[in-house]
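Q: Got a minute? One more chain.
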Amino acid sequence: MKKFIFIVVLIISSIITNAQDTNVQDIIYKSDGAEIKVKIIELTKETVKYKNFNQLQGPIRNIPLTEVFMIIYKDGTKEVIKKSTVMQTQEETPQQKQTNTIIMPKIETNKDNSSINYQDFCFKGQQDASRYYTGYSTASNWTGAITILAGGLIGLIPAIACSSSQPSMSSLTFPDQELIKNSSYYNCYIQEAKRIKSRKVWTMFGIGVGVNFAIILLLTSSGQ
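A: Always. Here it is, folded:
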């Protein structure tokens, strides 16, 4: 019996640990959209010092703040790097400025939306949600944990509730606050974020049901 309990605890711990992988490292989002999973060592006025998450015993690396859009720390805290706050230590030639400048995609907004392509704003909203929305982790992790501990029928309650609810505003991250003012962009961002959240929640529910099934098999085999 003790061996059985040990195996069950081991399975549950493994599932919960894997479900929380997105929260055990810091994430650097570069201005070009690239994502780096790291351990932040130091944030200065000019650079971010970090170690690659898969090479924690490796060298400390540096990335200029001018190349960083946002940092999401392992505790869920988000920090958007404002380019206006980055201090320059030396004069740059026009050629250097042209080389170092990061050109972000810009969509102009105006009060008359009749001249704006709805699909362009909607597509960008969906892209940004896929890239920057990470607020699903709490809902998916809780769903998985409850399903594992209480069973599939009980697990359906948080799965249905979490997957059908809109993402909270506090969990949303927008790369450009000006774009929020456009209803097409905002609505498509929210819809995509909800879809991502729903997918993650049901994935964790499925994992929980699988663990329950494994526990039943262990109980059956141990009783024979």
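A: The CA atoms of residues 126 and 191 lie 8 Å apart.
Q: Perfect, thanks.
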